[in-house]
């Protein structure tokens, strides 16, 4: 089994709903974002490259942990705090993490792993989001877990509920009959930084 | 460890966040993530946290694990944001507190919806801006100094003021502004009738709302087909709007059409996220769309590409307009009596049918022949008449594609290409949200667009027509019971647009009129009305400004008396109107009202008690029951009690839907207009609201164009100010709703104005510079971002941030209060400004 996501960049319009859904479900501390929707365009967020005469280009790249089939982070972690599960989820165990940030250095995908330098802070004085999420901790690395706590309940990750553009797809990449497998068989796609040999489980339809 | 920024180095964390997003983006997108700035990222975020929490939020770490045993209850409700999305929500309550609001399913999953904003409700419910108890101002107006009072003291102050004002100035000097999308929250609309006061009526999006139903009619839902029918279009124009920001829940159907091979063309001044999906983006000057639509009609006609059959059968084209009074020649004018009169089902009266001319030149009543003449001048008896179509041809004759190139800046070649798409018979849809409405001439583009859809025959069948935002499931509601309960007749209305005039001139529509007390119930007037400085001067004349709301917003800050309303999920209610789908959604009570807040309905009942007035309903549920008591709801099988069981129900009776379950405007060639036809000609012209300001009625009967009030190079304002200012709808806020939601503010921490590289270079403004934006009326100091998608000579300041978010001033100091007397509509984007680098101290 290899759980993965397919994101149709021709449909995604950068609305950030998936990013906020992640923030909410995982009760992310202030300023932590496990899923960020990056602008591929001009210098500023949400602005295009190009001009009227030559033409514009603007697409979006929702980016979180790529749950690589061949993760660089797990090899770098000296204590086994980050590890790949049988179902393909690259998991982060806060209790084992010693905060050395080797995984952050090893991961080629900038910004998907976040180190809590300080005690996590929140806007409200009680926990929001789902139950069963592990407590956020100071001095550990955290990141997208494909909502492991939701998977355990037979649900999809929070970012899949619901993409207003219907651009996000979820399933088992090992199952040729799954929607995700069919999509990458049928459509042109890209994975991020294929030269690093990580073989991400997040596919972007182009 | 290198920090990108700290609280002291930059004004806010925006630059950190932006930089992160952008730097990561550059690395992913361009250089392949070679520069590893992971430590910088984390450091910046950590450094910024303190800055955010100093703004009055709790920093107690609530990040502990909530274990599986914790009991949770899920309630149903609707996101209320006045964005039209009207998303059904699952509201999860744990240990008595709402811990999330997420997407809840519709019976038809095609309608499932949620956006970045609707996920933030817990932050608003428990956030620092939530109004907790009634408060009375103690400092200067606007100084944000308050004392807590009891509900009884508050309502005594309110009702005593009403009485004083009534004694001094007459009852109509007490004004109430109330409106809502939930049935129970409509109770406050009865208040002005109860006290014999004046009802202050909404004046937003009213040009499009007024003209479109007159041209193409409306269904039970709206003036357009059901939005999801856009799936069936083969050509789509996103014209003068940006649905991905302002109406994002309809975009997935548009994307489906594209997946099915449809072509998308975006037309507008600025490049949008919708334009990013388009086959082509065609830039047009602000406020000139009517010219383009007329030129396209003209081109189709001249090149024999107009759909003459459609015009003859489904529009007013063959009707004969009398030269004398511009009305249609009707059967009674010629003394024709029908053996069996046609009865108007609404009034039960016989219809005096319009006359048409047969190919033999003989007059006969509409419907008697299938191929009437659509062109020509005729004389029948004393009546000199011309077909409506001939009048249309005269009206559009001056507008050639060459003329359009001159006025709109769209090349003749592009014009011909657009015309070729309209000429094609494949289904063609125009998604034109109210973007073009926010101009003095805001009715003109929609009128001309409707005419083009008629000339090209793209109306009345699946995949054809215009799809615009305003969409009300409220068609079935028993409004009469709500607005006109027998004891309290509806009160006279004054539109918000006229408030300042009334306060300054003390007259309205030629009669003496004062407004000396105002209750603003659930409306952010300061960021959502025109000309903030004049509005505050109007407030200054009031003996009492009362704001009834959820949060301390800008208008509340200027109030004398504040009444706290319970949150949407703190009392039972039903969403029935203001939605872009046909479902009615039950709003369950998930938690008790927080603090001392009361729900809208209960506040009205308390006021009635205080006034010693009879309140006609036994309970809120009783009120809701009456609202659902209508023939149309019966036809759809909905009662309040049924809805309580099912929680979400389709309000459109099945017989109105086609095989695909869609409501199609003009299906069968019948339109919900006065004549039952699609109307490019308006036989009856009445102002939307009688303000007493004159205008030439003949000037609005047919498509026409007048240059914008300010946003035009030859306007009076353009002599001093060289840039147009657009107030766009941002995805981050719905107007001012969610403007302070902290999660969203982490990503967009501060207001910005987007300007073109050309205008920036002329003024030596660099990306991220602080600028002063000004005109005669006022100014705002704000960060400027350079965006190549902005047309030179234009700028965009997405609306909705609060006063306290700006370095100085406010964007609504720049807007003006002029309005067209036909539509009586706010024109937010018809504004001229100048921009310069700000040299003052910031911080
Ligand atoms: S929710 Fe969907 S459309 Fe919005 S940013 Fe995420 S992937 Fe893109
Ligand atoms: S703000 Fe609008 S689109 Fe977003 S969740 Fe609420 S109703 Fe839906």
Task: Write structural notes for this entry.
The complex is a heterodimer of chains A (206) and B (843). The longest helix of chain A has 9 residues, at 17-25. Chain A is globular. By secondary structure, chain A is of the alpha+beta class. Chain A is built from five helices and twelve strands. In chain A, a hairpin with a 5-residue loop joins strand 6 and strand 7. Chain A has a four-stranded mixed β-sheet with strand order 10-1-12-11, with helices on one face. In chain A, strands 2-5 form a two-stranded antiparallel ribbon. In chain A, strands 3-4 form a two-stranded antiparallel sheet. Chain B has five domains: 14-53, no CATH class; 74-125, N-terminal domain of TfIIb; 135-205 and 474-629, Rossmann fold (3-Layer(aba) Sandwich); 208-466, 3-Layer(aba) Sandwich (Dimethylsulfoxide Reductase, domain 2), CATH 3.40.228.10; 717-837, Barwin-like endoglucanases (Beta Barrel). Chain B is 26% helix and 17% strand. Chain B is built from 25 helices and 33 strands. In chain B, a hairpin with a 7-residue loop joins strand 24 (573-575) and strand 25 (583-587). Chain B is globular, with a radius of gyration of 28 Å. The two termini of chain B are 26 Å apart. The model of chain B is unreliable at 1-61 (pLDDT under 50). The interface between A and B is large, with 83 and 93 residues. One iron/sulfur cluster (SF4) binds next to loops of chain B. One iron/sulfur cluster (SF4) is lined by residues 79, 81, 83, 85-87, 113-115, 117-118, 249, 734 of chain B.
């Amino acid at each position: 089994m290899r759980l993965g996501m397919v994101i149709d960049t021709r449909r995604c319009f950068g609305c950030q709903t998936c990013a906020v859904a992640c923030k909410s479900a995982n009760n992310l501390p202030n300023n932590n974002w496990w899923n960020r929707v990056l602008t591929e365009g001009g210098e500023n967020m949400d602005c295009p490259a190009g001009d009227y005469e030559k033409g514009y280009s603007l697409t979006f790249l929702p980016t979180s942990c790529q749950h690589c089939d061949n993760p660089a982070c797990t090899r770098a972690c000296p204590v086994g705090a980050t590890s790949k599960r049988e179902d393909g989820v690259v998991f982060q165990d806060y209790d084992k993490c010693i905060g050395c940030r080797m995984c952050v250095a090893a991961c080629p995908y900038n910004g998907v792993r976040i180190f809590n330098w300080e005690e996590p802070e929140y806007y409200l004085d009680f926990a929001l989001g789902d139950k069963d999420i592990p407590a956020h901790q100071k001095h550990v690395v955290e990141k997208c877990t494909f909502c492991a706590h939701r998977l355990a309940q037979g649900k999809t990750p929070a970012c899949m509920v619901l993409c207003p553009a219907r651009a996000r797809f979820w399933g088992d990449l090992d199952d040729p009959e799954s929607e995700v497998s069919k999509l990458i068989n049928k459509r042109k796609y890209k994975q991020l930084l294929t030269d690093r040999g990580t073989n991400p489980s997040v596919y972007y339809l182009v | 460890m290198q920090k990108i920024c700290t609280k002291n180095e930059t004004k806010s964390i925006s630059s950190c966040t932006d930089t992160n997003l952008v730097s990561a983006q550059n690395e992913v997108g361009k250089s392949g993530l070679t520069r590893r700035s992971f430590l910088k990222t984390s450091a910046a975020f950590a450094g910024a946290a303190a800055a955010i929490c100093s703004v009055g939020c709790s920093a107690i770490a609530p990040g502990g694990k909530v274990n599986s045993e914790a009991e949770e209850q899920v309630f149903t409700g609707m996101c209320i944001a006045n964005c039209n999305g009207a998303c059904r929500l699952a509201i999860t309550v744990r240990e008595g507190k709402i811990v999330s609001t997420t997407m809840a399913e519709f019976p038809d999953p095609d309608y499932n919806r949620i956006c970045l904003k609707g996920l933030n409700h817990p932050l608003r419910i428990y956030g620092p801006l939530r109004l907790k108890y009634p408060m009375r101002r103690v400092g200067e107006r606007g100084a944000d100094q308050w004392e807590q009072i009891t509900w009884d003291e508050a309502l005594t102050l309110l009702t005593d003021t009403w009485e004083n004002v009534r004694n001094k100035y007459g009852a109509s000097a007490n004004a109430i502004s109330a409106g809502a999308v939930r049935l129970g929250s409509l109770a406050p609309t009865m208040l002005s009738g109860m006290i014999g006061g004046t009802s202050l009526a909404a004046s937003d999006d009213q040009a499009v709302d007024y003209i479109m139903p007159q041209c193409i009619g409306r269904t039970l839902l709206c003036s357009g087909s059901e939005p999801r029918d856009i799936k069936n279009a083969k050509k789509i124009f996103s014209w003068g709007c940006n649905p991905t920001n302002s109406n994002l829940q309809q975009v997935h159907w548009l994307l489906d059409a594209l997946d099915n091979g449809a072509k998308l063309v975006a037309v507008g001044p600025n490049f949008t996220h919708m334009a990013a999906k388009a086959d082509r983006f065609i830039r047009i000057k602000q406020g000139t769309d009517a010219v383009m639509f007329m030129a396209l009609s003209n081109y189709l006609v001249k090149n024999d590409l107009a759909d003459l059959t459609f015009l003859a059968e489904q529009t007013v084209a063959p009707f004969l307009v009398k030269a004398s009074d511009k009305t249609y020649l009707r059967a009674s004018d010629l003394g024709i009596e029908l053996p069996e009169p046609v009865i108007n089902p609404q009034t039960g009266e016989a219809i005096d049918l319009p006359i048409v001319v047969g190919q033999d030149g003989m007059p006969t009543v509409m419907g008697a022949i299938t191929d009437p003449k659509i062109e020509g001048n005729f004389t029948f008896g004393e009546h000199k008449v011309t077909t409506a179509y001939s009048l249309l041809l005269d009206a559009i004759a001056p507008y050639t594609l060459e003329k359009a190139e001159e006025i709109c800046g769209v090349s003749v070649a592009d014009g011909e290409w657009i015309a070729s798409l309209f000429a094609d018979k494949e289904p063609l849809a125009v998604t034109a949200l109210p973007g073009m409405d926010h101009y003095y001439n805001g009715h003109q583009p929609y009128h001309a667009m409707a005419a083009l859809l008629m000339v090209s025959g793209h109306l009345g069948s699946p995949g054809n027509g215009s799809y615009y935002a305003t969409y009300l499931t409220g068609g079935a509601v028993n409004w009469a019971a709500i607005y006109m309960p027998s004891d309290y007749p509806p009160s006279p209305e004054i539109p918000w647009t006229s408030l300042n005039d009334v306060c300054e001139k003390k007259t309205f529509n030629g009669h003496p009129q004062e407004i000396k007390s105002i209750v603003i119930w659930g409306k952010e007037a300061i960021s959502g009305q025109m000309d903030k400085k004049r509005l505050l001067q109007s407030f200054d004349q009031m003996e009492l400004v009362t704001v009834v709301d959820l949060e301390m917003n800008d208008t509340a800050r200027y109030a004398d008396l504040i009444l706290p309303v319970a949150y949407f999920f703190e009392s039972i209610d039903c969403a029935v109107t203001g939605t872009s789908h046909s479902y009615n959604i039950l709003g369950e009570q998930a938690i008790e009202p927080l603090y001392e807040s009361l729900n809208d309905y209960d506040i009205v009942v308390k006021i009635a008690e205080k006034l010693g007035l009879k309140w006609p309903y036994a309970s809120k549920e009783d009120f809701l029951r009456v609202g659902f008591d209508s023939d149309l709801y019966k036809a759809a099988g909905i009662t309040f009690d049924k809805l309580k069981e099912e929680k979400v129900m389709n309000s459109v009776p099945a017989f109105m839907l086609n095989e695909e379950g869609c409501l199609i405007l003009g299906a069968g060639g019948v339109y919900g207009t006065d004549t039952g036809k699609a109307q490019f000609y308006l036989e009856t012209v009445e102002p939307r609201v009688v303000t007493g300001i004159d205008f030439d009625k003949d000037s609005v009967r047919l498509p026409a164009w007048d240059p914008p009030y300010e946003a035009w190079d030859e306007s009076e304002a353009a002599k001093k100010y060289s840039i147009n200012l657009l107030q766009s709808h941002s995805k981050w806020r719905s107007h001012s709703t969610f403007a302070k939601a902290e999660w969203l503010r982490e990503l967009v921490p501060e207001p910005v104005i987007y300007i073109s590289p050309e205008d920036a270079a002329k003024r030596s403004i660099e990306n991220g510079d602080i600028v002063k934006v000004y005109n005669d009326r006022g100014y705002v100091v704000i960060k400027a971002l350079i965006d190549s998608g902005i047309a030179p000579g234009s700028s965009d300041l997405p609306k909705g941030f609060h006063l306290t978010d700006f370095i100085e001033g406010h964007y609504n100091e720049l807007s003006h209060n002029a309005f067209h007397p036909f539509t009586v509509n706010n024109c937010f984007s018809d504004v001229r400004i100048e921009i310069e680098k700000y040299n003052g101290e910031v911080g």
